[in-house]
Amino acid sequence: MRLPDPLRSRVVLIGASRYSDPALPDLPVVEKTVTDLAGLLTEPHHGLVPESHCTVLLDDGDLRTVGDRLRSAVAGAEDLLLVHYAGHGLVAGRRHTLYLGLPDSRWEAPEFNSLEYDKLRDAVLDSPAETKVVILDCCFSGRAVGDPLGGAVGRIEQLAVAGTYVLTSAQRDQVALALPDEEHTAFSGRLIRLLREGVVGGPELFTVDDLYRRLRAVMAAEGLPTPLNRGAGTAASIALGVNRAFAATAGPELRRRHGAAVEQGKAGDWAGAAEQLHKTVAEQTRILGAEHEDTLRGRQSHAHSLGGAGSPAQAADLLRRLLADQLRLLGPDHEDTLRTRQFLAVNLGEAGHREEAAGLLRLLLADRERVLGGEHPHTLRTRHLLARNLAFTGGREEAQALLGEVVAVRERLLGTDHPHTRRAREDLAGVSGVREVR
To answer: How many Å apart are CA 323 and CA 300, to the nearest integer?
Structure first.
C-alpha cells in the first residue's frame, strides 16, 4: 500500500449544480461538494496532489471545453488518475447508455448536450496513468460497473494491466440522493467526512477499497443507496488518503518513544538516542506532518542528541534549519523556539565557535528575562551558559558577575546542596582563578 506520487498524479473533479432544463432540478449541494473535495485532495500534507494538478470543471456547460480539459488533464497523469463526477445521471438510447449531466443537458434527450460515460471511460483508459480511479456520484451510476470500467469485455486484459477502479454512489437503477439540511450530496458528503475526520482505530492509509467498504456500511446503516465497485489490477491497493484519526492513536505512542530516547541520551547513550530519535522524527513527519509541534520537538531533540554524541557542528546545522521553521510556525517567544536558540548556542560553543555562541546567548538571555522573568530556571540556565562561554573568550569579569548572580538566586530558591547550585558555585570558583572552567 502506498500514496501516489503527487507530482506524477492528476485529479479531475466534474460537477454540475445548475441546469437550464426545468425537468432537471438544480443541485446546489454539488458546488459545495466539489469545492470541499478539491480542498481536501490538494491540502499540502494530507492531500493527493498540488493544486496545480487538480482540474475542477464546475458548471461548465460547453461539452467541447469539458472534453478538451479532461483530455489534457488525463494525459498528464503517470501514477494516479482520479476522476470524480457529481450531478444528474441520465439514461438514453436503445442501450440505455449512461450520461453525466451538464448545465445544458436535457432530460428527454441527453445524447447531444451531456458527457457520455463511454467517452469519459475512453479518455480515462487512454491515460498513461498506472492507476485509474473513477468515482461517480449520480443517479443510475451503477450502470458504469456492468462491464470493466463500463466498457466492452474485450478490454478486460488492458484493464488488468493498467489497474482501474470504479466506485459508484448507487446501483444500476437507483437514484442518488441529496438529503435536506446536508451541505454535500449524500454519497460524496460521507466520502468527504471519511477523508476529513478519518476512522479511529483504522489503518494509517485509506485505499479506495477501504473507502468503498466503509461507505457501503455507513450508507446501508442509514438506509441510503448502496455503493457499487469494480476493480482490476492493483488499483484497489493504492491509497487515496491519510487516515487523519490515525494520528490520534499514533501521536501518544510517538511522544512516548520520543521521551524514552531523550532519557536514553541523558543516561549517557547519546548515539543510541540520536538513532532512535531519527526514526521517530521520520514517523512523526509522515503521520503528524512536518509542521506539527511534536515533529518540531522531535527534530530539536534529535539535533541536540547528535551534539551529545560528538557531532556539535552537525547538530548546529540542523538546529539553524529548525529555528527558521519554529520562528515561522510558533513565533519568537514560544518556549520551544527559545530552547532551540539555546541548544544552537550550546552546540556552536562545543564546535569551537565560542564568540558566536556568547552573542546568541546574550540575546537569548534578554528575551528569556522578558518572557519568563529573571529567576525562572530557564533564564538562570541561559545566564549560566553565557558565563561559561564568556570565560572561554576572555570575558572573565562579566562571567564572574553573571555566575555570582546565578549562585545567589539558586541558593535562595534551590538550596546550597542542589546539583545546579553546586555546579554554578564550581564554575564561579574556576572563573575566579581557583581552577579552570571545563
So the answer is: 9
Which of 331, 247, 245 has its CA nearest to residue 286? 247
Decide: 261 and 276 in contact? Cβ < 8 Å: yes
Q: Are strands 10-15 and 54-58 parallel, antiparallel or unpaired?
A: parallel
Predicted confidence (pLDDT) per residue in 187-207, tens digit: 999 999 999 998 887 888 898
172: pLDDT strictly greater than 70: no
3-state secondary structure of 128: coil
Environment class of 293 (CB within 10 Å of its CB; exposed 0-12, middle 13-18, buried 19+): middle
137, containing H or E segment:
strand 131-137
What digits encode the pLDDT tens for the residues 134-160?
Answer: 999 998 787 777 544 444 433 333 433
Over range 101-121, report the average pLDDT: 91
Sequence letter at residue 386: L
| Calpha distance 299→307 (Å, rounded) | 13
Is the per-residue pLDDT at 277 higher than 50? Answer: yes
What is the DSSP code (8-state) at residue 226? Answer: P
**Alpha carbon separation from 198 to 175, 203, 224 (Å, rounded):** 27, 9, 21
Q: Report how far residue 366's alpha carbon sits from residue 373's, in angstroms, rounded to the nearest whole number.
A: 10
Task: Pull the grid cell for residue 90.
Answer: 441520465
Count CA within 13 A, CB hemisphere, residue 428: 17
